[in-house]
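Case study 2.
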Amino acid sequence: MFAQSDPDAIQSVLSIAGFGRCDTRPEDVRLCPGPTPREVADYVSSSGVGRAVLETVPDHRREEARAAVEAALAERSGPDGVVLGAALWVTSTTVPG
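Prediction:
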């Protein structure tokens, strides 16, 4: 979970920032992070949250963990490359006055 996973929390933050009523709606999206499971696993393993998670794995098991990531991505691979589902909030608001 993350701080903006609740529409009420989004409204609260925007209200405090001086915005008016906001409309928040969920949106499902399709992510295509790369052409092959190996390339996506390499990217995920070397950046952001993926790197941070892999750094918690003992050194002697890190390659095994990275291979597990690649295998999971292979299940989502097809003619369009690796395709992942995701969800996000689309929020619009106004400035009063």
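The beta strands are 22-34, 77-78, 81-93.
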